[in-house]
Amino acid sequence: MNDVFEGFHYDDDFQLVLTIAGEEKKILIGGELRFSLSDEKYCVECGKEILHDSLCYECALADEKQACLKCDGSHCFQDDAEARAFCANNAYCVYLASFGSIVKAGVSLEERVVKRWVEQGADFGVKLASNLNGKSARVLETRLFAKGFREFVKASEKINVEAKQSFLENALAKLDSNEKIVSLASYHAVPNRISGETAELCGAVRGWKGPVLYLGNNAFLLSKAVGRKVTRSVPPLI
After folding, report:
1. 110-134: pLDDT as tens digits
2. CA 154, CA 166: separation in Å to the nearest integer?
3. So where are the chain's domains?
4. What is the predicted pLDDT for the residue at 237?
């Protein structure tokens, strides 16, 4: 779609990449971003104007991933046979990840769990169970939610946090688990000084952490740009 900020991801080198109008643009630390975003928001699939999220109602219904996102392991809502087979025949793990003092439970494909932690901007992560099919992983994840672990952490909760391993260690102690904790600090580039949050995608790129892009002394939440039209840009990107 023409000039729409469609999303962001981390590549195989854990480099932040933005997708704008179907084109992937790798972010460079030290580069200067000068993007102007529309107030209006659009579905990233069909271009229809929407109020929130990234898909309109019709495109969300057609998106096979949406059914899997609400799965708790008790019943499969997935109509797509290929997606059901993928869930049954691939190896998943159940994990805990910490964002400051917040500890979240989640499920990931075994082979990409570190990438999943980096995408979320976690400080530390630990695998609790491995080599599960999708249904079994969701059942265990649901049990962890019942124990008080978070299901979702907002991007705004990931900006100014105290990254201490002890938060995750305490969570493991409650589960009587001694699984190995992984530090994710080397995958992030977080400035020492952060003044606050900005709504403008403008400024010198100083780093990133999951869905948070640091511009100057401010943090920009990339999720706020998804679905908005880029009306002006000066590319410091490759």
Report:
1. 999 999 999 999 999 999 999 999 9
2. 21
3. 5-232
4. 47
pTM here is 0.90
List strands edge to edge, sheet with 23-26.
Answer: 5-10, 16-20, 23-26
Q: How many CB atoms lie within 10 A of CB 204?
A: 14
Coil/strand/helix, residue 56: coil
Q: What is the pairing mode between strands 92-99 and 32-34?
A: unpaired
DSSP 158-214: GSS----HHHHHHHHHHTT--PPEEE-GGG-B--S---EE-S--EEEEEEEETTEEE
Q: How many other CB atoms sit within 10 Å of the CB of residue 203?
A: 17
- At residue 130, φ and ψ (nearest 5 deg) are -130, 165
Determine the length of the chain: 238
Q: How far is CA 93 from CA 90, 106, 123, 129, in A?
A: 10, 8, 18, 5
